[in-house]
Amino acid sequence: MDVRPRSVMRSRHPFRERQAPRLWGRSRSATPCTRPTKPRSTARAEAASSPAVPSTPMVSGPLKRMGDRGLIFSPFRCPPNAVRPYTIGIEMDHSRLRALDGLRGIAALIVLVHHSLLVVPALAAPYFGQVDIGGWAGLLVNTPLHLLWAGTEAVYLFFILSGLVLAFSVKSGSFTWSSYFPSRFARLYLPVFGAVVLGAIVIWATPTFDAADSLWVRNRPEQYELRELLADLTLLGGPSNAITPLWSLQLELLFSALLPLYIYASRRVTPVLQIAVYLALATLGAYAAVSSLTYLPMFGIGVALASLWPRISSGLSRLPARFSALGWSLTLIAAVLMTTSHWMLRPVLPTELAGAVTLPIVLVGICGIIIAAVHAPLLRALLSSRPFAFLGLISFSLYLIHEPIVVALSQVVAAPIVTVFVAVPFCIAVATVFWYLVERPSHRLSRRIRAGVDSELRLAAYTSTGSTGGGAASSQPRSASTNGSTSVAPAFRR
Predict the structure, then answer these.
(1) How many CA atoms lie within 13 A of 357 on its CB side?
(2) Which of 34, 126, 292, 421 is the most buried (most CB within 10 A)?
(3) What region holds the Acyltransferase domain (predicted)?
(4) Percent of the chain beyond pLDDT 90?
(5) What is the model's pTM?
C-alpha cells in the first residue's frame, strides 16, 4: 500500500513533489522557522516505541511534510505558516526590479555614448592626463553634464548593482550554492565567447588608423592577436586592448567566485560598518593603483546595501507624502553632483590624489541613485517603462559588443563627432540580434543547469531519506491489534 501524501501521489514523477508556495516577508505569519526542540534521535526513539498507526509516515531528513501541502525541500522541520528569517522584508516587487533593470540599461547606454565620444580628440584628451580643457569640451568634461557620458562611473554602478542583485538572490528561498556556481559561470562565459568572435570579425574588417584620430582610437590594436584572443575567451591573464569592456567581466567573474566570502562577512558585520570598510579599501586601492583592491570592494558595497535594504525601505516608507517630489528632486541633484565630483574637482586637486579623494564620494552618489531609482515614485515609473525596460534587457549584450563597432564606424564617418549619432542606433540594433542569438540561449542554458543540479540534489536527498525511513520502519516493534493478530507500521515507499 502506498501511503505517500496525495499531493505527491498525484505528481507524474515520484521525485517531482508539489512544492509549498514560497512565503516572502510580510505574509501570513511571522513565525520564525526554528529547529525542533527535541533531538531527532529522541523523536525517532519515541516513534519506534509508540503503537504503529497505519497513516502517513513521518519523513526524516531534508524532505519534510507540511500539513496537506505535500513535501518541501528544507533542512529542518517548519510549521505550515512559517517564514524563513532571512526573507523577512527582503523581497522587492516586480516594478522595483524592473526599475533596476532600466537603470542598468541607462548605464550601458552611457558606456556606449562614452566610447562614441572618445573618438573626438578633445574629449579623449582628459582621459590621458590633460587637465586644462576649454570651450565646449570643457563644458562636457568638467561640469555635471559629464554624467551623460560618464562611462567609468557607469561601470561602478554595474559593480554595485551586481553585488546587490546577487545578495538578494542568495537570500531567496530557492537559492542553492551547488547550482549557483555552474549556472553563474555559464551565464557569464557564453555571451563573452560570442562577443569575442564578433569583435574579432569587426577588427579584421576595420581599416587602419591615421594620425588624426584621437589618442583613444590610436590605442586600439589593428590586429587581434591569438594571445589576446585566448586571454579574452578565458577572461584570464589580464584584459586586452581589443575589447576593453572585458576588464570588468574579469572582476565580475572573480566576485562571483568569492561571493560566499562576501555573504559570510555580511552576516558577521553590521551593514554600515561594511560600507565604511569597503569605501576605505577602495580609496586605498585607488591611491596605490591596485585594480583589484579598488574595484572588488564596490561589489561588497552592493552586498552590504542588500543587508541594509529593509531598513532603508522602512525608513523611506514613513516619510510624509509632501517629501516625494521636492525631496527626491533634491536627492537626485545631490547624487548627480557626487557622482560627477571627480571631474568637477579634478582641476583643483593634485593629479595623483584626485582619483583617491573623490572615489568614496562618487560611490556614495551612485548608491543614492540606486536607492532613488527604486523608491522615488516618478523615477521608478520612468525606469520601468518599456523603452528603458528594453534597454535593461539587452544591456549586457550592448555592453559586450559595442566597442569594436564604435571604432570601426569612427573610420568611415565624415567627422568624429558624427560617430555618436551613427553608433548608438546601430549598436542597439546589433545588441538586440546578439541578445536573441547568444544571450537568451545562455540564459536558458543557465536555468537548465540550475534546475538540473537542484533536481539531482533533491533526488539524492529523497533516495537517502527513503532508505533511512524504510530501515527505521522495519525496526519498529510489532504491536497487538484488536483481533489478537500483529501488524507492522508500513514503511515509506520510494
Answers:
(1) 13
(2) 126
(3) 99-436
(4) 50
(5) 0.76
CB 183 within 8 A of CB 169: no
pLDDT of 230-251, one tens digit each? 889 988 877 778 899 999 999 9
Apex CA 262: angle with CA 260 and CA 263, to 5°?
Answer: 65
Residue 63 pairs in a beta bridge with: 73
CA atoms of 217 and 361, how far apart (whole Å): 30
Q: Which three cell numbers stand for residue 283?
A: 580609496
Residue 279 identity (one-letter amino acid): L
Which cell is 64 given?
Answer: 519534510
* Cell (9 digits) for 4: 505517500
Residue type, 397: S
Is residue 423 pLDDT above 90, yes or no? yes
Which CA distances in Å does 352 have to 51, 142, 253, 356?
A: 80, 17, 29, 8
Amino acid (1-letter code) at residue 140: L
Angle at 278 between CA 313 and CA 170, to 5 degrees: 55
Rounded-to-integer distance, Cα 433 and Cα 423, Å: 15
Of 204, 214, 238, nearest to 404 by C-alpha is 204
**Rounded to an integer, what distance in angstroms lies between the CA atom of residue 493 and that of residue 3?**
7
pLDDT digits (tens, 9 = 90+) for 475-489: 444 444 444 443 333
Grid cell at residue 24: 516572502
Q: Give the pLDDT confidence of 352-393 residue by residue, as tens digits.
A: 899 999 999 999 999 999 999 999 989 999 999 999 999 999
CA contacts within 13 A on the Cβ side of 428: 17
Domain boundaries, the chain: 10-37+47-88, 94-450
User: How far is the CA of 13 from the CAs of 9, 57, 357, in angstroms?
Assistant: 9, 20, 60
**Cα atoms found within 13 Å of the Cα of residue 209, Cβ hemisphere only:** 19
DSSP 32: B
Residues 427, 405 contacting (CB under 8 angstroms) = yes
CA distance 409 to 430: 13
pLDDT at 219 over 80: yes
Q: Which pLDDT band holds residue 49 (cuts at 50, 70, 90)?
A: low
Q: What is the pLDDT of residues 65-116, one digit of tens each?
A: 333 333 333 333 334 433 333 332 334 555 567 899 999 999 999 999 999 9
- In the three-class reduction of DSSP (H, G, I as helix; E, B as strand; rest coil), residue 407 is classed as helix
The whole-angstrom separation of Cα 36 and Cα 59 is: 14
Residue 183: pLDDT over 70: yes
